[in-house]
Amino acid sequence: MFETHHSLPWNAVTLQPGSLKKRAELNRAYMLSLKSSHLLQNHYGEAGLWNPPQQPTDCHGGWESPTSQLRGHFLGHWLSAAARLFASTGDTEIKGKADFIVAELARCQQEMGGEWIGSIPEKYLDWIARGKRIWAPQYTLHKTLMGLYDMYEIAQNEQALDILIHWANWFHRWTGQFSREQMDDILDVETGGMLEVWANLYGVTNKQEHLDLIRRYDRRRLFDRLLAGEDVLTYMHANTTIPEVHGAARAWEVTGEQRWRDIVEAYWRLAVTDRGYFCTGGQTSDEMWCPPHQLGGQLGPENQEHCTVYNLMRLANYLFRWTGDVVYADYYERNFYNGILAQQNAQTGMVAYYLPLETGGTKVWGTPTNDFWCCHGTLVQAQASHTRDIYFTNDEGLLVSQYIPSRVQWHHDGSEVSVTLESKAHDVYALKASREQPRQTSHPEYTLSVNCEQPTEYTLTLRLPWWLADEPTITINGERQQVPHTPSSYYSIRRTWHNDKLTILLPKALQIVPLPGASDMMAFMDGPIVLAGLCDDASMLYGSKDQPETLLAPYHERQYAAWQPDSYETRNQPHTTRFLPLCDIRDERYTVYFPITE
Predict the structure, then answer these.
(1) What's the predicted TM-score (pTM) here?
(2) Where is the Non-reducing end beta-L-arabinofuranosidase-like GH127 middle domain (predicted)?
């Protein structure tokens, strides 16, 4: 694999107790609550193993209904999430359920002749070839293919690979009958991550037939225009193309052919760098790419589809591993708080398909068994993957990329190294005990405990985030380091580590962020977190755009023994509006962008 930064094994990183771990546990409980027979209902139906006289009342509905053309798409996501949960936590209960489902898929495959294992009929693909209108069958099928691959690669289920290889034989034979022009027509109908599946499989088998599938799923009508520098994304369905570029990324890793990497880098420039994004990090409206830097007319009830957030973060992971460029880690962080967390209900665990950015918007939450939007699938995967992007290794040592309370165990030069990252609470009683005057300090502060089996020399690198408002304070065993105020950069410490403790304080400040293409509309951010006003209008705010503290002040800043830095309210305004982190809002009406005048 071609990379400068390496992901750690899944079981090397665990979450520390806290709100994020609670969200992950809520997601696990949801996954286990779904009956295996209902997860498999559409595969059973295709294989003739589930044929009741009428649909059961508790059958999965929505996009998983036996009458939906996308039926069966969720199961693949479920398997991918289950593989991640088992690999990262050793959860044998979820592993047993997932292994049973894989075994049942093998039974369905045998019933259908030994190759096909789709939750939809083969004729759906023939309809594409004939030009008949059909709702994204390859997108649907790739979910199961990817779930099988993840069960093999991440959860070490050999049966899943056997099913996948036999199913790939069907696709190799089916695609082999078409000319290049005919195949290009087929690829114009949403294929999801089919290219990534075949690249993954080729990375395992190194077989010519799987390389053939990579070649056949090369979507030249998109990729060649990307390489030519054309804007092929504006008002195009966003989540059609992002998984296709995942495929290009994986194809570069398994073939080493430069064209694939050039496609990925050209896509990122066009989709993110040269397009801009909302303060949340999202870039879409009604599932379509917004015009570059012209987002003023795009605010509405259907901004920021959850799938696009998760998939662009996955693409950022590819690019970060290849380059180590801090811009990808910064992008990941912005979308993590204001997408992945903002679009999961912290009480029910359910997903919001969109994140409305309109005035007075509300989040619409899915139900456990009656919707199964595409975003239900990316929800369970995202909430099972939190540990994957916190730490990376490189030739010099360990990199802390995201400040998420967690623990990593890692081997370096024969020594076992344990690093624990904790968020430091600002405890009023602790301040009194030290005879300090209690005062609010809302800056994120962390402790990093480093314990090595034996003294070990390596470089510990810390990301200095894009929102850094002043010189950070970093101490090692009480000794303060000289750290420059350089947002969006790294600070590296080379030393012999043994049993050491770092404290890290990252100053943040309120900031006002204009809406690209509508400079009179402003949003407020508290460090990496978008704030939203609890109101159903966007009343004019009066104050300095360069001094957000003239507009917002902390609200209810201390609760009993702890400071509460995340809540604000307007000051010196005709009407008082309370502001909360967008990721904490559940059912309230809210507004993100406001007009501001001096």
Answers:
(1) 0.94
(2) 398-502
